[in-house]
């Protein structure tokens, strides 16, 4: 056996640069025939370790942190059988789930069957005792290990001078005294170059260095033999201990748990559920051709049963049913699952696949062994409730979340390396900029840093939790999958999603999306108004909704908020649901190039189909292949593919693999000719498919998400105040967005009222007078403070300022009360802000027993500019006051407009916030201004003649009266005509 103990991979996070992907080839080149993997306390790489193609014998282990005789130390543990591997999994889980990240000796004893334990060299407690010349302590510890562990060996390390001279001879003597075999330890943490490893171990522990400056590189077998020349017996011992070990983990057939009572047939129950569900759907919204629905349903059920996925659909149905029963909104669908009629009948999705021409085979292909993949959308504040239900129903050992690995990226690796080299932030930023902007770098120090950064790029840096994926299984996963703590209450697998799926475990994605929460809460406000909407049966031809979409008034509307998408909407002017479906599929890199073609053809530009036989398939998208399902239908119609074969074609050509492309070409042409189609036309159509295959989008997903977008647009179009109230709450911490949304509300005549200590809550609240600002959005007012206020209000409203202070003075600190004052939350007590502030610490009613006529001292109010500043500090912007407030009398006297009222040439009040001067082609100066009145900001162009006249005034810090006209070529920009200076706030204007 040619191997050694102590090799660690990249999954010993921040402690190895050896990559599993290249490890086996490297070991073969260095004449090894066996690899012992022993990462630090984890089995992150275990699946990849066993699934890699190699001739090497593989023996899996770990370097365990343990407590032995009240001292923290370590042991290598290697599995010699399937039972040993299961115990290794348990020990790894115990250590990763513990707070201390160590294994207690009692657990090590309990789970030691078929595990071989070996001391770890310089950091074992025995070697540490020998380094300290404490021979007696070393003997005591050896005797303890021998007594407690069945398969215990001494690890001999000679890869540092100190270990070779001070430890090895003593360890050999102890080996002979206790007749315990020594095995060869060579801790390997990098392949060759030590510099990247030295930098890596300092990323989180700047003081860390290699022990005794040792060589911890991956050796050749010849070099390893040479280093143990005085102790050759260790290799005979290694062979004797592990010669019969050659196992791989058993491949298990995983099944989902069954939500039904024992004895009930999943197949029959699923069929019954679907028939009842489909009947209810038909009763609510009659199908045009019910026979087609029954035919499709029976086909899908037969495929699901044949592939063994009856329980999968029942499990999903069960927790979706729970969510709906609890009033938790479930998205209409996501991904290819929306193409399943079974999903529609069960209420898992709300997209009718026959109505929208969606294909089941895009979801589940009977000719390809594949896992079903139903992803579910829930409101992001309710997702965890559904997961908790699943965990409680099936047990915490059957439901686990999934680990992800954060890796070193280009910029992060450079920054981390720079930090280990002691470089300043400025110097680091300079190097990052040079590296990412294609500078010609010649400085040796910079080049060295980039070389080090490149060598660690792609290595795992830390673990995270998969954003949505959950694994469910009927078997107890604790002996099959190594576990660790994650970001949720669930156990978390140490393996990543791809490993788990390759093992045969089924993953279900529970996604939390903010938009469903917005929809649900908007519907809640409407219910308070006695308005009941059937969200899933809204009219899809609503004129008001399409008017909103055509104007791109889509702030807050799912998938339609971006500037680019708004631009597309104004050009497209959608007037039917299919427009939304198409644009969601097209608005992506690649297919985006077809958007203008689509719009031109939609409004009447002539075009030809590649062949008239494909007209029915391509007519809805004006001759352009937009959807993957169209590729499948073309193959089915033109070349007589089954839809299952067509899905294999779609998958194959989308990979752009030359071998697959050529074999599929020959197959497509052959089948087309057999279907009586001309060969030349078959070639032409196949090439046409190739042109769009890479960009084709899943229509099922596009239809489902278009429904969510339409629902939100409908709510915004018909119930603007309710929709915007909820939308404001969803972004309450983003001051810029709050300001933007408030402007939109003002433009529609809806007031946003300052916070009120008597009524404000955690969210924005809609009232007949306007939308009330929440307490939680005030700076320095946290969740605990708002909770205390709400609890106090349960005993009745605050009678006056004294009553407020008396009931809450011990609960709210000075900063909170100050913030409430200047945000306007205490204005209802009838006192000005200075009086409120100056009396904030004194409760006058407490003195009435002693002084009958004590009164609260009154103060003159702060100046307007102080109120503006203090409100801005409390809210992050001005809600009640604006800079224009100083000049309100002037605005009224001279009939000035505000910036958001400019429709033609107007005189307005504004502050010039920014000036950008440029030179025209003729050498004259002109400028672009950013003008604000504290609420609205606009861009204003100043042409040369006006610039030369008013240039000196453009750096003024004071408000100016500006005469502005809209730019006729761009409705969002304006042109400056004139500036008037205000002498003082009471004076007439001085014309310029």
TrEMBL record:
<keyword id="KW-0808">Transferase</keyword>
<dbReference type="InterPro" id="IPR011708">
    <property type="entry name" value="DNA_pol3_alpha_NTPase_dom"/>
</dbReference>
<keyword id="KW-0235">DNA replication</keyword>
<dbReference type="Pfam" id="PF02811">
    <property type="entry name" value="PHP"/>
</dbReference>
<protein>
    <recommendedName>
        <fullName>DNA-directed DNA polymerase</fullName>
        <ecNumber>2.7.7.7</ecNumber>
    </recommendedName>
</protein>
<feature type="domain" description="DNA polymerase III alpha subunit finger">
    <location>
        <begin position="515"/>
        <end position="676"/>
    </location>
</feature>
<dbReference type="Pfam" id="PF17657">
    <property type="entry name" value="DNA_pol3_finger"/>
</dbReference>
<feature type="domain" description="DNA polymerase helix-hairpin-helix motif">
    <location>
        <begin position="749"/>
        <end position="836"/>
    </location>
</feature>
<dbReference type="InterPro" id="IPR004805">
    <property type="entry name" value="DnaE2/DnaE/PolC"/>
</dbReference>
<dbReference type="InterPro" id="IPR004013">
    <property type="entry name" value="PHP_dom"/>
</dbReference>
<dbReference type="InterPro" id="IPR029460">
    <property type="entry name" value="DNAPol_HHH"/>
</dbReference>
<dbReference type="Pfam" id="PF14579">
    <property type="entry name" value="HHH_6"/>
</dbReference>
<feature type="domain" description="Bacterial DNA polymerase III alpha subunit NTPase">
    <location>
        <begin position="269"/>
        <end position="512"/>
    </location>
</feature>
<keyword id="KW-0548">Nucleotidyltransferase</keyword>
<keyword id="KW-0239">DNA-directed DNA polymerase</keyword>
<dbReference type="InterPro" id="IPR040982">
    <property type="entry name" value="DNA_pol3_finger"/>
</dbReference>
<feature type="domain" description="PHP">
    <location>
        <begin position="8"/>
        <end position="156"/>
    </location>
</feature>
<dbReference type="Pfam" id="PF07733">
    <property type="entry name" value="DNA_pol3_alpha"/>
</dbReference>
